[in-house]
Design brief:
alpha/beta, elongated
């Protein structure tokens, strides 16, 4: 069912209430998601993106209920990833000669995923445009590495709509469709989670792109992303948030992350959390067992934090696999300007704290010298080491 966005622009996407994971199982979906596609009906009829492959036949059949497919003059593929392009195979069976406007990299992406099917690609670059009638046009803006090399956004003049692709979105299903109708707490919770886990690795690229867009002097009445709520009430609020988040973001928060075998390292983690509160009562403290908690939720809290404390016992001259995998993901996200400390228990060789420090440095954290290494289960002598670690961790 189509939903009006503004003027002659409609949402024709898919509300995915049952979705639980994304990017394979690498991203947790807790509040559903949407795949947003848009239909523009001016003198020319334009389809902006499609929906994910599993829903391709429903998408095409639903679109047929709204419009004669042969009236579609062109398709804009802002991004080749299959949650955006997955219905093209079914759609192009119906309208095989319809031109597809996309970047050169998107041609490689689409043909790489679906094979060379003879589709009528029209490649574009930043600043290129196409007239769609009634004095309006589409202007294409390359968004390379936000978050794929093929990404772009499309701006519609007249109605001042930015079809922003993966920027400014959220994995959040809201039948109300628009940001002003959505649950504001969930909206921003999912927006910062999305930024943290998908876009933060490209934060420096994003900062430059935001500056480029600002320099164009465009007016945005609506920002229509590929997932989640459409921003129509003060749409620039999410642009301002992205500018803030992309600038080595941190709040007055410390996150403690650990894995444990026989609860010794868990005891250290909770004592460290208590000591942070003792030394800095206004600081928010979060504690997670990396082997049990949702890794994307943990990363969102690390993103908010000015510092982290990470713990693991020594196992086979190394660290527990639950924390090892989490640290690899931490490195991928490229957080900046955050401090870190390491702690853990051991029985024989005791390498875990050294390894944690090395991994945290490799992930870009400013690692403090202070540490807590506890032989067997921690006792009062070990707990006496914690205040110095916390003091160093809280220093700016």
């Amino acid at each position: 069912m189509r939903r009006q966005v503004k003027g002659n622009v409609s949402w024709v996407g898919y509300m995915d209430w049952e979705l639980e994971t994304f990017h394979g199982d690498d991203y947790s979906i807790l509040n559903g998601s949407s795949q947003n596609a848009y239909l523009i009906e001016e003198e020319k009829t334009v389809l902006i993106d499609t929906v994910w492959t599993p829903h391709r036949f429903d998408f095409v059949e639903n679109l047929k209920q709204e419009i004669d497919l042969k009236k579609i003059d062109l398709i804009v593929a802002n991004h080749g990833e299959c949650d955006h392009s997955g219905s093209l195979t079914a759609l192009m069976e119906e309208i095989p000669d319809t031109p597809i406007y996309c970047t050169e990299n998107a041609v490689k992406s689409l043909e790489g995923q679906y094979g060379k099917r003879g589709w009528n690609f029209k490649t574009v670059k930043s600043g290129d445009s196409i007239e769609i009638g009634n004095g309006k046009k589409l202007i294409f803006l390359e968004m390379r590495m936000l978050h794929w090399p093929d990404s772009m956004a499309t701006y519609m003049t007249g109605d001042n709509i930015l079809f922003s692709n993966d920027a400014f979105g959220q994995h959040y299903a809201t039948d109300e469709l628009f940001n002003d109708k959505a649950d504001q707490c969930l909206l921003y919770k999912e927006a910062i989670k999305y930024f943290t886990n998908i876009l933060n690795p490209f934060a420096m690229v994003l900062k430059k792109k935001l500056e480029e867009i600002e320099a164009l002097g465009l007016t945005f009445d609506i920002i229509a992303p590929s997932h989640g709520a459409i921003w129509r009430e003060d749409p620039m609020q999410i642009v301002r948030k992205y500018a803030e988040w992309a600038d080595a973001y941190k709040e007055d928060q410390v996150t403690v992350v650990y894995d444990t075998m026989w609860e010794g390292t868990a005891k250290l983690a909770h004592r460290i959390a208590e000591e942070i509160k003792n030394q800095s009562p206004d600081t928010v403290v979060k504690v997670f067992n990396a082997a049990k908690a949702d890794k994307n939720e943990i990363m969102t809290e690390v993103f908010r934090s000015r510092a982290v404390a990470v713990g693991s016992p020594t196992v086979s001259n190394s660290i527990l696999s639950g924390i090892a995998g989490w640290l690899e993901f931490l490195k991928q996200l490229k957080f900046r300007n955050k401090r870190a400390a390491a702690f853990g228990c051991y029985g024989w060789s005791g390498e875990s704290v050294r390894i944690l420090k090395e991994r945290l440095k490799d992930a870009g954290f400013n690692v403090i010298e202070e540490e807590v290494r506890s032989l067997w289960n921690p006792g009062e002598e070990d707990f006496k080491e914690i205040p110095a670690l916390v003091k160093a961790l809280l220093e700016e």
